[in-house]
Design goal:
Layout (H helix, E strand, L loop, with lengths): L2 H15 L3 E5 L16 H4 L4 E3 L4 H13 L3 E5 L10 H8 L2 H4 L9 E6 L24 E3 L7 H11 L4 E6 L15 E2 L2 E6 L8 E5 L8 E5 L4 H15 L3 E5 L2 E3 L3 H11 L2 E8 L4 H13 L8 E5 L8 H7 L3 H12 L2
Helix pairs in contact: 1-6, 3-4, 7-11, 8-9
Length: about 350
């Protein structure tokens, strides 16, 4: 099953399971089915609960927040993650605040789905990774499944179980990818895989290593669309220099999955954190800070972060490749950690 199919199937399942579930967004009705076809087929089966909205992200976010406060389970699709900037007031000052402001007399079980990331030549205003803007907002959960997770399963849990607002991030390049799930022996291709539930039982991290049971030389942390790049980098450095890398791929971006990352970081003493966004004030910066606070004495080298250049993302594919982090950037960071 492909990533996009898993999400589409999950939407069909939650709408069948609970008639309080509504899907809202721009251009989500059939036959179009959304910009990336995640909502395809929904409006044909549930015409009264799939709502095509005006092109006004602040309005529809506020509308969905009100629906959630009235006991419904709205799923709002923002067509491109770049447009999440237009939703910030409703998210930061309304959806995440009302439960506290009214002494938990109201809940806001709102799920906001949005595609993030570049590498498709969409240019500076349709290619950004902006979930980092919301890392310091109390009361907001951020989930960003990789293809090593089951994104549909995580979406079902977010819709049917969470009682507060959720930002559900879907990397654009993952939509057509086939899911990489562990086989009966616990392997995903060449990697030994393990689910980590130390931080959250509903949104696990995935641990990947080419060598089972051996102490890793470097811990590599990456989420969402950076996961396939991290896996390729880990494979390359092992084949070229026998450097053993343990990859930790969280599905939960916020709250920060420290308990899933810390054991490997303490054991290896060397950590690389890769993200598609710029490094300044990013997810990697906070993750590195939390690791240092808990395991500074265990680190052999300063934590290294890999991220995008601090310039707008170009439409030109060659220039875009220069701006966004690549497999080679992760490899170089790993080599610096071990002194190669």
């Amino acid at each position: 099953m492909r990533y996009v199919e898993s999400l589409n199937q999950a939407l069909h399942q939650v709408m069948a399971a609970d008639d309080r579930v509504f899907v809202l967004g721009e251009d989500i009705l059939d036959p179009y089915g959304g910009a990336f076809k995640v909502t395809k087929g929904l409006s044909s089966i549930y015409p009264d609960r799939v709502l095509a909205t005006p092109i006004s992200e602040p309005s529809i976010t506020g509308f969905a927040t009100g629906m959630a406060m009235r006991g419904l389970l709205p799923i709002l699709e923002i067509m491109f993650g770049d447009f999440i900037t237009l939703c910030t007031d409703q998210i930061i000052n309304s959806a995440t605040k009302f439960s506290w402001m009214y002494n938990e007399q109201v809940k806001v079980p709102l799920v906001i789905r949005t595609p993030m990331g570049g590498r498709r030549g969409y240019g500076p205003t349709h290619s950004q990774t902006l979930e980092t803007l919301f890392l310091s907002v109390p009361g907001l959960t951020i989930i960003a499944p990789s293809h090593f997770h089951d994104p549909g399963n995580l979406l079902r849990k977010a819709v049917l179980s969470e009682r507060g607002p959720v930002l559900f991030v879907e990397n654009k390049l993952l939509y057509p990818k086939r899911l990489s799930q562990p086989d009966q022996s616990g392997r995903i291709g060449d990697f030994f895989a393990e689910k980590l539930f130390g931080h959250n039982k509903d949104y696990p991290s995935i641990s990947l290593s080419l060598v089972k049971g051996e102490r890793a030389d470097v811990t590599l942390v990456a989420y969402g669309g950076m996961a396939p790049l991290a896996a390729e980098a880990a494979f390359n450095v092992f084949m070229q220099h026998e450097i053993v890398v343990k990859i930790i791929v969280p599905s939960l971006v916020k709250p920060f999955p420290l308990k899933d990352v810390l054991p490997s970081a303490q054991e290896s003493g060397r950590v690389v954190i890769a993200e598609e966004a710029v490094r300044t004030a990013g997810w990697g910066a906070e993750m590195a800070s939390q690791i240092c606070e808990s395991a500074f004495d265990n680190l052999s080298k300063p934590i290294e972060r890999v991220g995008a250049m601090e310039v707008p993302i170009p439409s030109s594919r060659p220039l875009e490749k220069t701006v966004l982090p690549q497999v080679s950037d992760i490899e170089k960071a790993i080599y610096r950690q071990v002194g190669v």
